[in-house]
Amino acid sequence: MNFKMVVLTAVMLAEPVVCLAGEASEIERIKQELETLRQSYQQHIEALETRIEMLENQQAGESPAALVEAPLVEAPAAEPAMVAQDRPNAFNPQIGVVLVGGVSSYSSDRDQGIPGYMTGDEAGPPSEGFSLGESELNMQASIDDKFYGNFTLAVADEDGGTEVELEEAWFQTLALPYGLAVRGGRFFSGIGYRNQFHRHADDFVDRSLPYRVFLDTQYIDDGVQLTWLAPTDQFLEFGAEWLRGEGFPASGAGDNGKGAWTLFARTGNDVGVSHSWQAGLSWLSADANDRSSGDENESDHFTGDIDIAIADLVWKWAPGGNPNQRNFKLETAWFWQNQDGVFTPYDEDGLSYDEDQTGWYVNGIYQFRPQWHIGLRASGLDADSPGSAFDGTSLDTDGHDPRIYSAMVDWSPSEYSRLRLQYDLDESAPKTVDRLYLQYIMSLGAHGAHRY
User: Fold this and answer.
1) Is 163 exposed, middle or buried (0-12, 13-18, 19+ CB in 10 A)?
2) Which uninterrupted H or E stretch holds 329?
3) Do 263 and 324 reside in the same domain of the chain?
4) Residues 232 and 333 in one domain
5) Considering 80, 209, 294, 380, which has the largest number of Cβ atoms within 10 A of its Cβ?
6) Cα-only R_g, the chain
7) Could you tell me which of 300, 301, 283, 282 has the C-alpha nearest to residue 291?
8) Is there a single domain that holds both residue 28 and residue 122?
């Protein structure tokens, strides 16, 4: 057996061992998971084949300069239900660190308040100048044959000091029947397409306006999540969450620490060989107890109910189904938010508040060469004026509709490093600001692949 056959045999043996259940629905679910896993390993196999060719060339006597090792594409992480338990290191944690930082320059030092909207602490742009941003330490592994676990710490530079935050700490079941899975602990909520991703996996330096304003960039909370993967040829998933209600837009852990809940559904399929798509609908309902508005002095507060709906769509194209050389991704979403309660400006009596607000974004990312991407994004918010009683508060829109337009180019010499240059035309407030970012993202150690 030659070296190439040995490597390919090792890859095939690394695929999870699947025990077929008796029920027809279980068989269909396992078939669907197996097909997903087979597709995700294609890129890993191609990278291995490239390295085999280089080693064969070395045996043929090629010069050392031609034998620089090709970057090995990290094998995508299997779905927890498909983790193989017969490998010697199946229960050893995968440990990885992601370093994120860069430098930014703005045409104005205006504080990025967004008139007309109550925001959280993370809604503003990155600090100007050199910054470490938010780096990440991640550990994940099979706990046993019934559970899978994940632990993530976020380390950020805040006002000249280092802040360590527990970002994720959850377990998930591996062996529930009928396509069911339960996750418990602290996790990224399943609402929306982009909310489920780590920040370093984003296509732009910052997130779009709706995510920043309505979800404070990303909705993270403590609780329990139940998902069901339907036994159908077309991908179809439903989910529900019951959460503590501490993360923005919730606040104060209402209803004795059970102050938020969500529902979401997503579906997708392939269109021919070169196209695929995924669409989703999500709903978040949460209580806010004396939530600060996020302005500089945290002087405005809100107590009441928040409902948020999200509709999103992602379309991907890769010629022949191979994204290594060229591919394109179109991503868009529409947000609706209603806040009903009492808004209390600084040193004033509470005001009854019940208003709807909407937001949207659309972006396109084109990989025109194996290591290069370019992207464009537009995002905006829309809200009616709540009335003269709110003049001078953070809910005063000033008759302005916030908009931000972004353009970026990034270079990724391997799966573990990325340099990104981005320009923003920021019209989120009446005074326009030009923003320029240069960002680096460096991965050390193991890190599982992200979702579709």
Assistant:
1) exposed
2) strand 327-344
3) yes
4) yes
5) 209
6) 24
7) 301
8) no
Residue ranges of E strands in 345-416: 351-369, 372-383, 403-414
- Parent domain of 37: 1-75
Contact 41, 15 (CB under 8 A): yes
Cα gap 29→231, rounded to integer Å: 5
Do 405 and 363 contact (CB within 8 A), yes or no? no
Length of the chain: 452
- Within this chain, do residues 321 and 226 fall inside the same structural domain, yes or no? yes
CB 288 within 8 A of CB 272: no
Is residue 293 domain-resident?
A: yes
Query: Angle at the Cα of 230 (from 229 to 235), degrees rounded to 5?
Result: 80
pLDDT in tens, 282-318: 999 999 999 987 655 457 889 999 999 999 999 999 9
Q: CA 241, 242, 246, 250: dihedral to nearest 10 degrees? A: 70
Tokens of 20: 């077929």
pTM of the model: 0.80
| Residue 326, both tokens | 């060229």
Cα gap 139→240, rounded to integer Å = 25
